[in-house]
Every structure is written in structure tokens, then in C-alpha cells.
Specification:
The protein has about 260 residues and is α/β, with parallel strands linked by helices. It is about 40% helix and about 15% strand. α5 packs parallel to α6 (about 135-145) and α7 (about 160-170) runs parallel beside α8 (about 185-195). The model has no long low-confidence stretch (mean pLDDT about 95).
């Protein structure tokens, strides 16, 4: 059995490059053989990419998150365009909208989000979406501008109705669940899986969102690691009442499909 962590902020787990390499090695020992490295800023992307660019099984997304809206970096669009041509860069992101902390203003956030969707379309890449209290606007934008390679709702936080609305609209979207799926009070996530996605398992991914969203099994830890991903996979398989190996195989296929990677 092998698992694919579709969203890990390795650079936020540890600053030290040697520690980052150990994180990847520990993940592989736990059966997590592929990881998408995520950064919120282009500055952080460059640092982490240079550390991990030659590490087998680590792939990269590049983009500007809503938290960086007031300082995306000089020539940030051309920087993304140059970065997507680097080896093992497989997605744009994370990008999206965050109205909870009110980074900048909504108009500027939406403009930056749309620009990155257009870059994803231009370079035939999927986009990784950050959504916090902005579901309606994200849905409205995606209806018009979702890239052909699809979009991933990372650390999915909306309810079952929202997931059903996206599927009914014919959007090429994936729903990625982090360690918070294992929380007893995460009823909106449980209902989404059982009432909507149980019939659409080809649209489901899992992630650690390292170093955040610690699975319930590891609640005493200070940070999440990619090595903890099996805990979320086990919880998902128990919810679905399906063998872990069967669920893990489907998750692997889904992840490889959306990031255009070979399964073997």
C-alpha cells in the first residue's frame, strides 16, 4: 500500500534543510511515497524547491496564497511562469480566497485568484484552492474559469450541499481531506463523504496540510507530519466501510490522475 500526501507545507514543519529531508524519509517509511510540497509565497517556494528538487517522490506547486495579497513579490506573474517550467512542478497553488482574516480587499484577492487560474489553464496544470469563508465567490469564479486540468479544494471545509453543487455543475474538481476529517465534531466533512462522495470516490484526495490539522490519533503532537497520513486514510476507509487497501488504491489513482503522474 502506498499513499500520496497532496498538500504538505514542508518548509513550515522545519526551517532546516536536513530536517526537511528527514521528514520526507520518515514519510516514505510510513508508506507515504509521494508528497506535493506547498508554499504560500514565491520566496518560500524558491527556498524549499532548491532543497527538495532532487528528492524522489517530492513534487511541487507554485503560487501566491491569499495571505500574501499585499506583497506577492515583484513580477510575481512572470516568476510563476518561469517556475512552472522547472522539473517536478505539477500544480499552481495554493491560491484562492480567504475572507476570514480579510487579507487585503476582496476585489484584489479575486483578481489574483483569476490570474492564477488563467496561468493554470495556460500551462495545463491543476490549481490548488484555499477557501476560507469564501465558498460562494470561489464557486462563481470556477464556473467561468476553472482550468481544464481541474481544481482541488484542499483541506475541504464546506458542507455536503456545496460538494454536490460543484459536481452537479459539472466542475472538474477534487475534494481533499486533511487530519480534521478524523475529528469527532467534523460533521460537515463526515456528511460530505458519506452522503455525496461515497458515490464519487474518484474525486477524493487526502493530505496532511502539514504542519497543521493534526489527526485525532496524534493530538498530543505539536505539528502534523506527512508520515501521519495513514491515520486519515484509515479513518476514511472505516467511514466508507471499505478495506483500507481498496481505498488507498483509489486515492493513489486519483492523485496521480490530477497531477498527471504515472501510477507506477
Amino acid at each position: 500500500m502506498q499513499l500520496f500526501d497532496t498538500h504538505a507545507h514542508i518548509g513550515l514543519i522545519y526551517d532546516d534543510p536536513l530536517e526537511q529531508l528527514r521528514v520526507v524519509q520518515q514519510a516514505k517509511l510510513a508508506g507515504v511515497t509521494r508528497i506535493i510540497s506547498i508554499n504560500n509565497s514565491l520566496h518560500d517556494f524558491k527556498i524549499v524547491y532548491n532543497t527538495l528538487k532532487s528528492v524522489n517522490g517530492v513534487y511541487h506547486a507554485v503560487g501566491v496564497a491569499p495571505s500574501e495579497i499585499t506583497n506577492p513579490g515583484r513580477d510575481w506573474i512572470s516568476t510563476i511562469e518561469e517556475s512552472v517550467k522547472l522539473p517536478n512542478v505539477v500544480a499552481i497553488g495554493e491560491t484562492g480566497l480567504d475572507y476570514f482574516k480579510q487579507y487585503g480587499d476582496k476585489r484584489t484577492q479575486i483578481e489574483m485568484f483569476i490570474t492564477q487560474l488563467e496561468l493554470a489553464q495556460k500551462y495545463n496544470l491543476p490549481v490548488i484552492i484555499h477557501n476560507r469563508d469564501a465558498g460562494k465567490d470561489i464557486f462563481d469564479v470556477l464556473k467561468e474559469r476553472i482550468p481544464e486540468s481541474g481544481a482541488i479544494f484542499h483541506c475541504y471545509s464546506e458542507n455536503a450541499s456545496y460538494a454536490r453543487k460543484c459536481l452537479d455543475a459539472g466542475l472538474n474538481v477534487y475534494f481533499s481531506f486533511a487530519g480534521n476529517l478524523t475529528y469527532r465534531n467534523a460533521r460537515n466533512l463526515h456528511e460530505t463523504v458519506l452522503n455525496v462522495l461515497a458515490d464519487h470516490l474518484d474525486r477524493v484526495l487526502i493530505e496532511t496540510e502539514s504542519p497543521f490539522m493534526i489527526p485525532a490519533e496524534y493530538r498530543e503532537k505539536k505539528r502534523t507530519m506527512p508520515a501521519y497520513l495513514p491515520s486519515t486514510a484509515r479513518f476514511l476507509s472505516e467511514m466508507l466501510e471499505k478495506p483500507l487497501e481498496e481505498v488507498a488504491a483509489q486515492l493513489w489513482t486519483n492523485s496521480c490522475r490530477v497531477f498527471k503522474l504515472p501510477e507506477a
